[in-house]
Specification:
The chain has helices spanning 49-55, 103-106, 146-149, 156-161, 163-166, 172-182, 198-209, 222-230, 244-252, 279-287, 310-313, 321-326, 342-350, 356-359, 370-378, 392-395, and strands at residues 4-11, 14-20, 38-46, 71-78, 90-93, 96-97, 123-124, 140-143, 151-152, 190-194, 214-219, 234-237, 257-262, 288-295, 330-332, 362-366, 384-388. It is of the alpha/beta class and 396 residues long. It folds into two domains: 4-171 and 337-395, Medium-chain alcohol dehydrogenases, catalytic domain (Quinone Oxidoreductase, Chain A, domain 1), CATH 3.90.180; 175-332, NAD(P)-binding Rossmann-like Domain (Rossmann fold). The strands form four sheets. Strands 3, 4, 5, 8, 9, 16 and 17 form a seven-stranded mixed beta sheet that branches. Strands 12-11-10-13-14-15 form a six-stranded parallel beta sheet, sandwiched between helices. Strands 1-2 form a two-stranded antiparallel ribbon. A hairpin with a 2-residue loop joins strand 1 and strand 2. The longest helix has 12 residues, at 198-209.
Length: 396
């Protein structure tokens, strides 16, 4: 194994690619040996909007954190307890770190595993307060509970041919799909997705594959809306005004939708230009029909040092919850349990049903160019940046 390199959070607004320690099969909290782990050579690893929250200084992430929770890799070393994987296998890594043994994991709620994070339920790679697991925006990374967590691709050559699509299985495609499923999307549904970023586009694509009749995507970013329209979704330009129901009615004939998906999260902005962290959630309640469902894959945090007010700094938002109650709506929140969906979505990709890389406008860049990717993404680029640490995507 050559020396490791990784994307490191330096401080608000700054990341650097640095030499980092080679991964070892030991737990981050107490150093105990993990015979159920593997070491991966990272084939691809993506920049995520959730990473941007940390890089903007909107969380309590410490300087020196190695980033990256969207990982696809090749097994190059495995522990003595790993039985289902072999050296050379190409695998997708769910961003959830999960033990496979606790009550939540047994019930497929792997986003809130009870054992991998001493601070609270749920673990993830390279993320603040998620158990200390080293991130995968690197050349090499360690993955615990490998037999349970990793999704092996059935054919190596086929996987490398479709790697730009398959790299989305680690997070944004299952997250978008979870948002659509939890919003109750089905055949004939009229759907509104808030946010035309990669997760919003993945949610829109998921709504289509689930049979939606109309899929609308709303945003202020004109470049992202133009791309969404090219992909077959109905754009809703929020610059046109604050009467979302009327804009939806211009497309569908009704100001209400069957299902709404919040792919924006806590850094939402309103027409006044400033942050309004609850605005999307309140809009979802307004436009969703009585007894409709609202899926919320967008990130909301318990601590936000950069919030607009003291309440929002601890995740307390000003919601019109009475409206949602009066309309008998259902809200579905939390980290996506990737393992619930990734195998089925892999099949959809491998059989040509879901060209997700084109839908989210994936752009492959080198690991060493990660800082430029972060900057472009932060400025609203209509792209999903995929890092290629070993040049394997370019070769493929």
């Amino acid at each position: 194994m050559s020396s490791n390199r990784g994307v490191v959070y330096v401080g608000p607004g700054k990341v650097e690619v640095r030499d980092i320690p080679d991964p070892v099969m030991s737990a981050p909290d107490d150093g105990r040996k993990l015979d159920h782990a593997v070491i991966l050579k990272v084939v691809s690893t993506n920049i995520c909007g959730s990473d941007q929250h940390m890089v903007r200084g909107r969380t309590t992430a410490p300087a020196g954190l190695v980033l990256g929770h969207e990982i696809t890799g090749e097994v190059i070393e495995k522990g003595s307890d790993v039985e289902m994987l072999e050296i050379g296998d190409i695998v997708s890594v769910p961003f959830n770190v999960a033990c496979g043994r606790c009550r939540c994991c047994r019930e497929q709620d792997t986003g809130v595993c009870l054992t991998v994070n001493p601070a609270r339920a749920g673990g993830a790679y390279g993320y603040v307060d998620m158990g200390g697991w080293v991130g995968g925006q690197a050349r090499y990374v360690m993955v615990p509970y490998a037999d349970f967590n990793l999704l092996k691709f059935p054919d190596r050559d086929q996987a490398l041919e479709r790697i730009r699509d398959l790299t989305m299985l680690s997070d944004i495609l299952p997250t978008g799909f979870h948002g659509a499923v939890s919003a109750g999307v089905g055949v004939g549904s009229v759907v509104y997705v808030a946010g035309a970023g990669p997760v919003g586009l993945a949610a829109a694509a998921s709504a289509q594959i689930l049979g939606a009749a109309v899929v609308m995507v709303g945003d202020f970013n004109r470049e992202r809306l133009d791309h969404a329209e090219k992909m077959g979704f109905a754009p809703v330009d929020l610059n046109a005004g604050d009467r979302l129901g009327e804009m939806i009615a211009e497309i569908t004939g009704s100001p209400e939708v069957d299902a709404a998906i919040d792919a924006v999260g806590f850094e939402a902005r309103g027409h006044a230009g400033g942050e309004q962290p609850a605005i999307v959630l309140n809009q979802m309640m307004e436009i969703t029909r009585p007894a409709g469902d609202i899926g919320i894959p967008g990130l909301y945090v318990t601590e936000d040092p950069g919030a607009v007010d003291d309440a929002a700094k601890v995740g307390s938002l000003s919601l019109r919850f009475g409206l949602g109650w009066a309309k008998a709506q259902s809200f579905h929140t939390g980290q996506t349990p990737v393992l619930r969906y990734n195998r089925q979505l892999m099949q959809a990709i491998l059989h040509g049903r879901l060209p997700i890389a084109d839908i989210v406008n994936a752009q492959v860049i080198s690991l060493e160019d990660a800082a430029q990717g972060y900057e472009a993404f932060d400025h609203g680029a209509a792209k999903k940046f995929v890092l290629d640490p070993h040049g394997m995507l370019k070769a493929g």
